[in-house]
Specification:
single chain, alpha+beta, Arc Repressor Mutant, subunit A, 4-stranded mixed sheet, two-stranded antiparallel ribbon, 7 helices
Length: 234
């Protein structure tokens, strides 16, 4: 079983490396696109240089209307330069935001892959329970030193499953109901025992924990997926 867990972990690591490499490639492409775009943008002072050349070449334009036209051209060149600078800043910010979003998305993907690998390992190996102690006096179960309070009915159901696991038995729903109610299995309903199992799983507080701790054996019944040496009823 450790071999399966290690193989799943190694697969997750390989997937993580692929995601990181893909992320690096995309960031490099974004960087190259940004450099090419900034290089393709015209110089902010280009329009001012053209206007200055017009001023030099039009030294004979002394009429008030002509001078006013030259002033408007100079102001337009300054405005054009400021617009280009602002465009460069906007483009730079957009590229930074895109790269940040990409990094965040990649981090989430890696985290999801890690969680899937861990869940897959748990599903293959079952829960690693070091000790499971049912305490009737305290009305709780100690799972790996974690105290989980249970109702009286849920505690009795778990105690029956523990006793059955110690005897290496699989109990059907009718048999579970029979042990708890004191009747014969023939007089008990299978659905009643199944309802007790569902309530016990719900009482454990986590659906994944409940499903892995209490295993359903097809066409036979239910059993604890725990090593009998880790079980104890107090």
């Amino acid at each position: 079983m450790p071999g399966n867990i290690s193989s799943v972990t190694e697969a997750a690591r390989r997937a993580g490396r692929v995601v990181v490499l893909g992320l690096g490639a995309v960031v490099a492409i974004l960087g190259l696109a940004a450099v090419m775009l900034f290089a393709a943008l015209p110089d902010a002072n280009l329009f001012n240089e053209r206007v200055e050349r017009i001023f030099v070449e039009s030294s004979e334009m002394t009429a008030p209307g002509e001078v006013r036209a030259l002033e408007i051209l100079a102001q337009s060149g300054t405005a054009f330069a400021e617009v280009l600078v602002s465009y460069r800043m906007v483009i730079f910010v957009l590229f930074v935001v895109a790269a940040a979003l990409l990094v965040a998305a990649a981090a989430l993907v890696i985290a999801i892959l890690g969680l899937r690998a861990r869940l897959g390992a748990i599903e293959r190996s079952g829960m690693q329970v070091v000790s499971l102690t049912v305490s009737r006096d305290e009305r709780c179960v100690y799972l790996n030193d974690l105290a989980l309070p249970l109702t009286g009915a849920a505690l009795e159901t778990l105690a029956v499953l523990v006793e059955a696991r110690l005897d290496d038995e699989v109990l059907s729903g009718a048999e579970i109901e029979a042990v708890i109610s004191g009747r014969t299995a023939a007089d008990c309903d299978e659905a009643a025992g199944a309802t007790r199992i569902k309530r016990l799983r719900d009482a454990l507080g986590n659906q994944l924990v409940g499903e892995l701790l209490i295993r359903t054996v097809p066409k036979r019944g239910y059993m604890l997926a725990v090593d009998p040496r880790a079980l104890r009823v107090a």
